[in-house]
Each structure stands twice: as C-alpha cells, then as structure tokens.
Amino acid sequence: MIITDFLERNARLYGQECSLVEINPSEERDKAVTWWDFNLIEMASQDAPYRRELSWKDFDRRANRFANLLLSRGLKKGTKVAILLMNCLEWLPIYFGVLKAGCVAVPMNFRYSSDEIKYCLELADVEVLIFGPEFISRMDAIIDQIPMVKTRFFVGKETPDYAENCIRLTGFCSSSAPPVALDETDDAAIYFSSGTTGFPKAILHNHRALVHSCLTEQNHHSQSRSDVFLCIPPLYHTGAKMHWFGSLLSGSKAVLLRGVKPEWILRAVTEERCTIVWLLVPWAQDLLDAIDDGRVDLTKFKLDQWRLMHIGAQPVPPSLIRRWMEVFPNHQYDTNYGLSESIGPGSVHLGVENIHKVGAIGKPGYGWQARIVDEHGVDVSRGEVGELILKGNGVMQCYYKNPEATAEVLKDGWLFTGDMAREDEEGFIYLVDRKKDVVISGGENLYPVQIEDFLRGYDKIKDVAVIGLPDQRLGEIAVAIIEIKEDMTCTEDEINEFCKALPRYKRPRKLFFDKVPRNPTGKIEKPVLRERYCQGRLVEVQITG
Fold first, then answer.
1. CATH (one of 1.25.40.10, 3.90.226.10, 2.60.34.10, 2.30.38.10) for 307-434
2. Termini Cα distance of the chain
3. Which sequence spans correspond to the domains of the chain?
4. Torsion-angle region of residue 6: left (phi > 0), alpha (psi -120 to 50) or beta?
C-alpha cells in the first residue's frame, strides 16, 4: 500500500465530508483567495478569520488534476517537483498530485533566501517548481540562474511572466486518477535538513517511509473519525505533515491555521471543535503567558472537546508542561522525538499514559527500534550518556547525492542521530543534547539542554539558549543567552544567585540578555548565536561565584 491509497479511500468512503479547513486570521479577504474554484465560506462577522474548506472528494480530484497536469508536460517517474508555498488549502492536494504522478515531492522552507532556494533546487535536481505570491521577489532574483527548472507553476492571481498559472491549467485536466503504477520502494519525497549547521542536506524517502509515518502517528494518538487536528507548523516540514498523516489515516478533519497568536489558536479550537493540537514550545509558552497576564480569558472559549496537546521538534522543559497541566488538567499530553532523516516525529515518543515521566522523550515508537551507543557503536550501560541511534521503515534512503554524509549516519540499517541521550531504569530515554552542541570545558562535558532546563525554572525567564564559546584556558566555556519575559526586568545578580543551585562547573561563565532566535520548527538557531557572540557585538555580563 502507498500513501495515496489512503486519500483515494477517504474520497470513496467519506467524499462529501470535510477534509481540510484553512483559517487565515491576519490577511484581507481577497488576498487569501488562491484556488479560485474552491467554495469560499465567510465566518459570521466581517472581522472573523477568513475560512475555506475542502471535502475529501475534492481533495482527491484536485490531486488527480495536478498529477495529470504534470503528466501532460511529459514528466517521468522520479522527476523532482519542488513546492514553495505558505500553508494553504492548495498545499496538500499539490503534494499528493506530485506523488500520484510518480514524481518526487520536494517541499521547500518558506524562509529560504533566494540563494538558499537556488541551492536546494540545484541540490535536488528539481525540474518543476510550484510557488506562491509570497515568493515572487525571491524568484525574481534567481530566475535566470535556474535553467534546469524548466517548468514553473504559480499559485495565485497575478502570474509572473516566467511562470504559468497552475490553477487555470488544472481546470482543463482530468479529475480521474492517473494511470501510474507505484510501489512502496519508489522514491517519494526529498526533505531538507533544518540547516542549523550550514546549508541543508537533501533527505530522500520512499513511499514505504511515508506509510510507516501514518501508521506510527495513528498508533500513538488514536485518531478517530470524530477527531479534528489543528495544524499550525509549516507543511514543508516533516513534523507538521506527518502528524497530519494521522488524520489522513483516520479520515478525519484537519484545520490549517495561518498564525500563532494565542487568541487565534483558542478561537480555532473553539470554532472548529478541535480535539488535537500540536504546538511548538514557544507557542505553548506564549499561550500560557497570555492566560497568566489576562490577555486571554479562557471563559470566552469552548475547549471541552480538546483532548490532547502534544509537543515535539525540540527539548521540552518539564516546567512548561507542569504549568500546562495546571491550566488544562483534563488534557492528555505527549511528546514526540524524530528527525527528518527518520520521517519526522514518533521514532521515540512519551505516550499519553506516561505523564509522570515528563522530561523524557519516551520509548521507541511504533515500528521503531532505538539504542544508545558509545563512539564505537557499542551499547552503553543504562544511565550513561551516548548517541541515540534508530532503526525502522521510516529511516531515510540516503542524503541525496551525498554518499559521504550518508555513510557517516547510516550504518547497518541504523541511523546515527547525532543526539546524546541516556536511558533510565524503566527504559525511558532522556535527550541530553546534540552531539555537536556538547560543551567541553576544562575536560568536563557540559550538556546545554540540562543547563537550559534549569534556567527556565526562573520565573522571569521566557527563553534561554546555552552555547559554548572558545576560551584560551578551558578550551570552551558555557555562556547563556537569556530572553526575559515581557514587562519584566532582571539583573545579573538575580541570575547569579539562582545559578548557585547548579554545580559550579555547570554554571554559565557569561550571560547575555537577548532574544533567542528559533527556526520555523522551534529549534534554537545556535550557529547564529555562536557567530553573533564570538564577534562580541553585544554587551556581556560576567557570571561570578
């Protein structure tokens, strides 16, 4: 079975039922319209979020039309097709259309600069590009430098002269399934690594991996036909899409919310009767802060149906979840660990029944194996820190066109994640830090995540990042970049006093007050911080004691 089979089944069994909803709270009404022949549904008042929806039957028909458009241009099986769109109702039908045509979908990060777009198009051997109006200026800058991208489709109203209007063209294409035979071993998608260590790598997955992700997600979170999933993170990333795969497998509705303000999230949960919400740490933090300071009044929202909140993509501070459960005591909670190399979330997961183990990333997920090994690939003893490695049908095929990098992380079917972890006496795995982020100071290994978790326990701190900076005597020192909560002040003496609860060797040697930069999936951009502070552009505060 391949993943497009699930969409065709849903169209057959639940054709007239809603599959997807897009809510766009921030844009004017006419700017939100991109796929013109969709049914457009206004909310009750003029200032309400703009809303569009799509049935399972129309979802499948539009995927078929786009697939047939690609085939009409002579595209062959395995042709790389890039998708450069903001989250919208068109995104997933286009993605599935690419797959139905036997092509390889190449989702692109919407924050990429022109140079990064060009780099990724070249790296993945892309021949077809679909892009939206938000990217015209970036495409203008490189259009003459990407001759290999012979076909360019535009999703929007005013089409640039170097592209064709995708929406008009699909109107002339058949809505029947294209006659393309697919196998689970066929290449399906190329995803890009987050690029936190430089330009991203291209990660190749086959159809078996996509199906494995569906089965893992549904097994972990028990999506049923009555569930409604609120999807906020970007669809180009494996995390958001693979969590949505649980809705695909169960034939249930999902809501794409274009915005992360706390009131928008709660309003979407209320009006669409959402039951499952996946958040990133900053969004959960912002929501709790808005409730605490009175900017959001929970009594104005209907949230009784909301059963599950889960978080992934980064280490989750236990203090945040304790706060969450105080505000939402009836919620189930889960955390999921994964990488784009392991087809997104779920290769390790906590499990809703293990709330008492908050702080752990959990145990091997459905259909996954996990080990913790030393630098020679030998299992370490329980309680010792080593590198987490994974095995399962969701492991990538390779880094596309990069056999050297592939050989570094794929060994005998095991994916070496680069994440340092330990396992407790009950078999629960705790993420310690990225292998590349470990700070070696005076011969001692310091794990920034542990120090970050400690500092987040101070009630004035909104976010924190700990990095290592070169030091002539110690080799490296740990420094903390601290973001203070809005409308609060904090002194070095306060942080200094708070840090006395840490062993002396774990205390940050320097402190910077600044905003903590995160990428679209919530991960701290530590290379950005290293570059910034190695150059010493901001005022530093020495931590003593």
1. 2.30.38.10
2. 62
3. 3-259, 307-434, 438-542
4. alpha
SS3 sequence of 345-410: EEEEECCHHHHHHECECEEECCCEEEEEECCCCCECCCCCCEEEEEEECCCCCEECCCHHHHHHHE
Query: In this structure, which amino acid lies at residue 408?
Result: E
Domain 3-259 belongs in CATH node 3.40.50.12780 = yes
CATH 3.30.300.30: does it fit domain 438-542?
Answer: yes
Q: At what angle do helices 207-221 and 3-14 cross, to 10 degrees?
A: 60
DSSP classification of residue 485 = P
pLDDT in tens, the chain (545 residues): 899 999 999 999 999 999 999 999 875 444 433 433 333 333 333 344 488 999 999 999 999 999 999 999 999 999 999 999 999 999 999 999 999 999 999 999 888 889 889 999 999 999 999 999 999 999 999 999 999 999 999 998 889 999 999 989 998 999 999 999 999 999 999 999 865 445 789 999 999 999 999 999 999 999 999 999 999 988 998 888 899 999 999 999 999 999 889 999 999 999 999 999 999 887 898 899 899 989 999 999 999 999 999 987 666 778 889 899 999 999 999 999 888 999 988 999 999 999 889 889 999 999 999 999 999 999 999 999 999 999 999 999 999 999 999 999 999 999 999 888 999 999 999 988 676 777 877 656 787 877 888 898 898 998 999 988 887 666 678 899 999 988 888 988 889 899 988 878 788 988 999 999 887 666 788 878 887 887 543 334 444 33
Nearest to 488 by CA among 452, 522, 513, 516: 513
Quick check: 307 and 339 in contact, CB under 8 A?
no
Q: Are 256 and 247 in contact (CB under 8 A)?
A: no
Q: Of 198, 14, 213, 180, whose CA–CA distance to 100 is shortest?
A: 180
Contact 355, 310 (CB under 8 A): no
